[in-house]
Write a structure and sequence with these properties.
Elements lengths: L1 E6 L2 E3 L5 E9 L4 E9 L6 E7 L4 E3 L7 E5 L5 E6 L8 E11 L2 E7 L3 E5 L2
Parallel strand pairs: 2-11
Antiparallel strand pairs: 1-3, 3-8, 4-5, 4-9, 5-6, 7-8, 9-10, 9-11
Length: 120
């Protein structure tokens, strides 16, 4: 079992920056993907970015050029640097960990989420 805990959300003005962090614990050796998703009020949860154990990244179009994911080698922490924030980036941001075994995903862990509000 993997546990993830997010931090770093808050209120920021349009054009500002925020850095989200996620601490990961538990069965980290089985983790293949780590990443961030977000959910705005009334909307479905959507991908922001994922990073694989081989450091391959997959960014949503809205995140390209503005958001950057980073990960420590031990897979115990990831961060999301968000720049040039827009009001439409307002959402609850979730850390995500996907465990794989024998080449197949078998478990997904989510944090409680951290609120990001972009407003003047």
């Amino acid at each position: 079992q993997v546990q993830v805990v997010e931090s770093g959300g808050g209120l920021v003005q349009p054009g500002g920056s925020l850095r989200l962090s996620c601490r990961i614990s538990g069965s980290i050796d089985s983790i293949y993907y780590l990443g961030w998703y977000r959910q705005a009020p009334g909307a479905q949860r959507e991908l922001v970015v994922t990073i694989s154990s081989r450091n391959a990244t997959n960014y949503a179009d809205f995140a390209k050029g503005r958001f950057t994911i980073s990960r420590d080698d031990a897979k115990t922490a990831i961060s999301l640097q968000m720049n040039s924030l827009k009001p439409e980036d307002t959402a609850l941001y979730y850390c995500h960990a996907e465990e794989w075994k024998n080449g197949h995903p078998f478990s997904v862990s989510w944090g409680q989420g951290t609120q990001v509000t972009v407003s003047s």
